[in-house]
Specification:
Elements: E1 6-12, E2 15-18, E3 28-36, E4 43-49, E5 61-68, E6 75-87, E7 91-97, H1 100-104, E8 110-116, H2 117-127, E9 132-135, E10 140-146, H3 152-163, E11 166-169, E12 175-178, E13 186-190, E14 195-202, E15 209-213, E16 237-241, E17 246-250, H4 257-273, E18 276-283, E19 293-297, E20 306-318, E21 322-331
Parallel strand pairs: 9-12, 13-19, 15-17
Antiparallel strand pairs: 1-2, 1-5, 3-4, 3-20, 4-7, 5-6, 6-7, 8-10, 11-12, 14-18, 15-16, 18-21, 19-20, 20-21
């Protein structure tokens, strides 16, 4: 059996370390790429031996590619900027974050009228200097107020929740606001071949049904009626599922039945897919990206086989442990 030799390319502040070109030139003691859809920002941790090589500084652009020596090309897994450089006597610790940090540090005050969730996301991202790769339209909001009490990232996260979308950044550092539909790229992992460790937890769905209410009848009473108050919320109610327990949500911004229903469907789906959670450790697979579908096959216990959605991907390279990828996933369908 042929052993695979991990390889990486690190570009920081115009300086490059590429182990496919100079295998012995690297001073990297540990490289950890932490991608997580449920965290505010993706990150990279580098532990560098203090013997020359890279000299990172806060604000430097950073890009990481991973793979193996025999690959035709390495795979880009992260693009961002250095946010911390912590030196000590034996090593220097370097942390880089994805462009999500720009959204976390941006606060604006703005009101949108008759705009889709996707339109609002695109305009807020552009204002924060974020490159957008893909934005699904989502439902139309009669009015959406962006207040300066919360970051733009928090508003985009809320919009993703209301529209049933995922909010994430790709390896190029570009924003994606999209619904998970399955299919597309599916990474297959077979028991006793690619899987080192595997854990799957299947819980009872937290809610059997969801009822969502908005604040007013909205455009059901005309295009200028979004600011009205009402005693009858039936025209701005959304429901999904049946039975108890019932999750009751009141969100003033959901002022139409379309919005309330989209939010109810989204919350109900989240309740279903989150009932299935798992973790897998495998040999380095840089091709797995956030939001991709993964498929577990041929496990002795058929209950852990199936399709899932990758929610967190952690690539780690160390001199002793080699190159491994840890994937946290959840159910792909409610």
């Amino acid at each position: 059996m042929k052993l695979l030799s991990p390889a990486y390319q690190i570009v920081i502040g115009g300086k490059k370390v590429d182990t496919t070109e100079e295998p012995l030139a690297s001073t990297v003691k540990e490289l950890l790429v932490d991608l997580d859809m449920d965290a505010p920002s993706d990150s990279v941790l580098l532990r560098l031996g203090n013997v020359g090589g890279l000299q990172p500084a806060v604000g430097d652009d950073a890009a990481i590619k991973l793979g193996f020596i025999d690959d035709d090309s390495l795979t880009l897994v992260f693009t961002g900027k250095v946010v911390a450089v912590d030196p000590s006597l034996p090593e220097t610790r370097v942390i880089a974050h994805s462009p999500a940090q720009g959204l976390l540090r941006t606060y604006v005050e703005k009101t949108f009228e008759n705009k889709s969730g996707g339109d609002i996301v695109r305009e807020l991202a552009d204002g924060a200097g974020i490159t957008v790769a893909q934005v699904d339209r989502g439902a139309v909001f009669p009015a959406y107020v962006v207040d300066g009490k919360r970051s733009v990232h928090r508003h985009l996260y809320d919009l993703a929740t209301y529209c049933g979308c995922d909010l994430l950044f790709n390896a190029d550092g570009e924003l994606l606001f999209r619904q998970y539909r399955g299919g597309g790229v599916v990474h297959i992992f077979q028991y006793a071949k690619q899987i080192i460790e595997l854990e799957v937890r299947k819980d009872v769905r937290a809610q059997s049904s969801v009822n969502v209410f908005g604040e007013s009848p909205g455009t059901s009473q005309g295009s200028n009626s979004w600011a009205w108050l009402t005693k009858d919320f039936s025209r701005s109610k959304g429901s999904a599922g049946t039975g108890d327990p019932v999750l009751l949500l009141e969100r003033p911004v959901l002022r139409t039945r379309e919005l309330a229903q989209a939010a109810a469907d989204g919350f109900f789906r989240e309740s279903g897919v989150n009932a299935v959670r798992g973790r897998m450790l495998t040999f380095g697979v840089p091709q797995v990206a956030l939001g991709d579908s993964i498929r577990v096959k041929d496990a002795p216990d058929a209950r852990v086989n199936g399709d899932f959605q990758a929610r967190a991907v952690r690539h780690r390279i160390t001199k002793n442990g080699g190159f491994t990828t840890e994937i946290e996933f959840r159910g792909a369908a409610a």
